[in-house]
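Kindly review both lines to help learners:
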Amino acid sequence: MRYPPTPTARRRVVGALTAALLGTAGLTAPAVAAPDPDRATPAPAAPAAPRAEEPLALTPPMGFNNWNSTHCRADFNEDMVKGIADIFVERGLKDAGYTYVNLDDCWALPQRNAEGKLVPDPVRFPNGIKAVADYVHSKGLKFGIYTSAGTKTCNRAGFPGALGHEYSDAQQFADWGVDYLKYDNCNNQGVDAKLRYTTMRDALRATGRPIVYSLCEWGQNKPWEWAKDVGQLWRTTGDISDNWGSMLSIMKRNLPLAQYAGPGHWNDPDMLEVGNGGMTDTEYRTHFSMWSIMAAPLLIGADLRKVPESAFEILGNREVIAVNQDRLGKQGTVLSSEGGRWVVARELGDGSRAVALFNESNRPQRISTTAEAAGLPRAGAYKVRDLWQRTSANTAGTLSATVPAHGTVLLRVSTDRAWPLLPPAVEVSADENVTVESGTTEKVVSAFTNLGRTPALAASVSVTGPEGWRVRAASRTTAPLLTTGGKLSTGWEVTVPEGTATGSYGLTVKAAYRTLTGKRLTASVPASVSVVAPPPAGDSYLSDLGWLSSVNGFGPVEKDRSNGESKAGDGNPITIGGQVFAKGLGVHASSTVEYYTGARCSRVTAQVGVDDEKGARGTVAFEVWADAKKVASTGVLTNAMTAQPISADVGGAKVVRLVVTDGGDGIDSDHADWADLKIVC
């Protein structure tokens, strides 16, 4: 779009834009008065057509944005921004690739000046925005700013948005030395998204300054389908929050969009939360790993003046950053995700593959794939590099690890001819889903497997448990030689003291071996044992009992409410076909919920279906499993159907598993209810 060269033409454009505002939003004219185009958006004396955009953001942008850590609080100010720029340099983040220091909402006063210009808040930024930008630039960094494609920004204070002021605001940003614009979606008055975002694109181009353009459209109009030639990145979701459920839900929405990402056009699942304190370091490593393999922008959202050292260790991992910044620009794709065992692979520019083994569940799980499945050609052996452990090994092809709860093992796999010089990759694992009642003994089997092409010599394994527990080997614990695929399996008798509280407890499985060169290496993994209470006798609602584990498509499994897709408790009363149920579980496909029954229960019953809260959308199928046997299923159910009965014989089962699949048509609004869910024991 060219900027109209005459006042008359400009008035026509503004008038048309105002008409679109009024016609779509149903407002009266005084509510959205068009700005005077001669004052609010003055044209240059001799406007030129928008220039052909030079390549920008050929790798995902890296930097900082204050919003996740400060929102609109007073600590968002000039000192903070300068302090972040200093830390980028002092802590090596600039050298690691972090470039942009970006302001978010609340940097301006609520009113424009008499000339229609934006006015920086003199309390937050007493020296103005240009002075801050100049300081950031003096550090060899770039500077970013924020506004909204609406009449106001998103904050309730009502800071001015750029709708109707695009050319004036863009020129003001360019004059200040802005290098990056985040353009939000609030107060858009119903004006067509493509029109709003394209207008700002043309306004930025007209300034002649290269400015990375971030469309914060929240994915409402599927910008990945049309914004490739509009901006360099587009938000695919709503805002992230500093908790596991939010991060997981956003990751799942972004992963299927891999085909739309590439150099200069990136899917943006929102900023990083690493260092803000709402997740564990294991979860933050997963957050950083998955954003990196998804080729997502890496914008630090924590106040680096206050974060723990562990945050710098995560954010500064250059091997993980190298995956994110790979020049080929391909977003990772999902190879598998069953049972919360995710395998995501990404082709890299040197021909290698990044492979993420991500454990969604709340207990350790073994996750496996192969180098060929990840896209590498068949070879005698491969080099595999663990990017968090910073260790290298050779593998005959299998890529496998026991991954901690909510953890990720991030690998870089290649056909390196020097593989014979590396030690063999090994896998250490133990039985999953181990349950035991207090005062009893349960058998656990560990496995030490040589995945490498070279042998593992003098292999040994040991298991330790919590203080007071007795762990005794019931079979051999050593092997003189493990060739490719060789396995040392050991049975262990684990005795839990009487009176041990119910809950999840950790075992540590440790293995040791020697390479052909005589080097001694060790490996250890966590294993999980659930101490459980016997189920109560009689009829019980399962929503009144604790489950062993749960994996859910979006958000947590809800008790006595539907699934709201994000945080706990955000659902509604369980409703199927207009019928409201007081008890049950609300889930989202794909979902698995496990209960300990200890061979003491006989039957599970429920009324099941798609919750009414998603209208006509959603198709699911329900299954009940008794240990490893499927004992009941419904077939595909839709939102048009009333609640359907399901009944399952679970006699003799130690664990009952409730499964919901997507009905075979992909995951979209698959809100599923296990209403009136009961068990007889």
Notes: The longest strand covers residues 520-532. The chain has twelve helices and 38 strands.
